[in-house]
Amino acid sequence: MVTLVLMNLLIDQDAKHMKTIRIRTVFILAALVLTANAIAYTNKAKPELRENNQAKKGPAWIRINQLGYTPAGIKVAVWGSKSPERIKKFELVDVKTGKVVFKGKAGKDFGAYGPFRESYRLNFTAFTTSGRYYLKAGKTTSPAFYIDKDVYKGTADFALRYMRQQRSGFNPYLKDSCHTEDGYTMYGPMPDSTIIDVSGGWHDASDYLQYATTSANATYHLLAAYRDFPGIFTDKHEANGLEGTNGTADVLDEARWGLTWLLKLHPREDWLFNQLADDRDHQGMRLPTQDPVDYGMGKGRNRPVYFATGEPQGLGKYKNRATGVASTAGKFASAFALAAQVYNKQDKELADLFSKKALTAYKLGIDKPGVSQTAPNLAPYFYEEDNWVDDMQLGAAVLFQLTGKEDFFDQAYTFGLQEKVTPWMGADTARHYQWYPFHNFGHFDLAKSADAKVKAELISFYKEGIERVLTKAKENAFYRGVPFIWCSNNLTASFAIQNHLYREKTGDESYAELEQANIDWLFGCNPWGTSMVYGLPANGDTPVDPHSAFTHLNQYPIDGGLVDGPVYGNIFKNLKGIKLYNSDAYAEFQSDLVVYHDDFGDYSTNEPTMDGTASLIYLLAAKEFRAGREAQVKK
Ligand SMILES: [Ca+2]
Ligand SMILES: [Ca+2]
């Protein structure tokens, strides 16, 4: 996904692409029009209240969650200054009346962080009245924002737009088909180049590779979102993704799209495929429906599908370090086993099929423990997943829910003890997708079936991971404890989900502020003052020039796409083939610590990903659900 180095090098050499004129204003307006109906509440933002945070002159800024804050929720903004100025207090002002409605103390001086010399957390959680406000500290004011129970309403459905746009096979956004001739087999027990139908699924990011590991994890997130928050999602699309209704929540339509592809990758009990296409894909920007890449079968024809052998793979210069198939097989087992539960009432035959597939996939993982990494070809980049017990734990946990067989519970528990904490938590760095999924649903799903003692033990593992991140987070005003590696936003969304799962299971609110800080970060409470989700909120500062063919070539909005996110300054400096195409609107917010560029040329921070967006959908559904529950309690 983010391995677009070669592509960028090619583009660098292509004078035509270099001269692509970006009509940014028109583009932004078009995006705003197209997204105008998406978010019920943010529509209330009157144009004259729209403020561009970056454009505001420093030396100090107040960063907020642009979606807004729920009345009963944690409410914190961050004040940062490039001057040695300090503050002691802040005020909350009602936009309509101009009156100060709340006064707060600035609290601890966090000092320097990233681009800022001084920084503070402005906590106004105690103020709970709905309305539209801005914050003021010294001479600095924040953009206006809402406090309202509906600030998350419709956001999960909005992010589903990006998933539909990523569909391979029939693409409902383009209303056209692509990659219909996938694929031909490699590494399998059948002769190489055997034609097999594996068309469908989702493109991984702005390239068009498709991975079992990310697709199965995304499918699990969508199914879990439907399971946990069924009332959040609407039905405004048909199964094929076109507008209409089919009596099924769109999130389940999307999960089904993923499941249908996963079934094609596990067509027999002894067959499991791990990947479709490879980095030969990285040959310049084009829409998926105009993909001319030739994998040896002719331009735009069949792409290779890699059999999960458990051995290192790579058809070109580079190879991965695969040791087994369990990391992929476990993800298939969990997605199928949850699907079997979800469809049990509405389609028994389908549920039985998923149940059968869950069992056979899980067995493949038992037979070949170890990791099944993605296969590189031209470049040395791949998803270097190093853990598999998390995947098998979740698979076994959900199979226990499905079957009631004690063996599955025991195995899930044993796997769970082998990796209590997802290892990136508390670390300063990790390899690309080394510890994936970025949080483990396994403890949560197993705890549902456990007695009080085991439940408490499993949930304490989440607490341990949260504590490790908190140790780092409490040192800075943004409460950042997530490492700035590639896809830091995906880790951020995942970490917020882990906090949510912990809070749901325990009722312990100790980490609510940390959880909210991670969500706020994604929506603008970060050094750059921008949301990291395309088009969300509709009137906010959100990415306008992401690393995507849809936006870059055709000015098509990529609504709901979560971009990779900020990386350490030294990661960015050492990347190959990276260059910014426009002057950096965020120049004064870059630092040696961390950078983020809203620029097509930065494939490391500004490329949306399918699986990160799927995690975001779960998280946003959780937020909307929780906001609704808080509002009920208040009544
Ligand atoms: Ca639907
Ligand atoms: Ca794993």
Structure summarized in a few sentences:
The chain is built from 17 helices and 18 strands.
Ligand inventory: calcium ion
Helix content: 25-40%
Arithmetic mean pLDDT? 91
DSSP E strands, number: 18
Poorly predicted regions are 1-52
Euclidean distance between termini CA atoms: 46 Å
C-alpha-based Rg, rounded? 23 Å
State the major sheet: 5 strands, antiparallel
Coarse structural class = alpha+beta
Task: Provide a count of the helices.
Answer: 17
Give the strand content. Answer: 5-15%
Tell me the overall shape. globular
Description of the structure:
- With 635 residues, this protein is of the alpha+beta class.
- Helices cover 36% and strands 11% of the residues.
- The chain has helices at residues 5-12, 15-18, 24-35, 155-165, 212-228, 250-265, 326-343, 348-367, 389-403, 406-418, 442-447, 452-473, 488-506, 512-522, 549-554, 569-573, 610-634, and strands at 60-63, 76-81, 89-94, 100-105, 118-123, 131-137, 140-141, 145-147, 169-171, 176-178, 184-186, 210-211, 273-276, 304-307, 562-563, 567-568, 594-595, 608-609.
- The strands form six sheets. Strands 3, 4, 6, 7 and 8 form a five-stranded antiparallel β-sheet that branches. It has a four-stranded mixed β-sheet with strand order 11-14-13-12. A three-stranded antiparallel β-sheet has the order 1-2-5, covered by helices on one side.
- Helix 5 (212-228) runs parallel beside helix 7, helix 7 (326-343) runs antiparallel to helix 8 and helix 13 (488-506) runs antiparallel to helix 14.
- It is globular, with a radius of gyration of 23 Å.
- The structure holds calcium ion (CA) (2 copies).
- One calcium ion is lined by residues 235, 237, 245-246, 248, 250, 253.
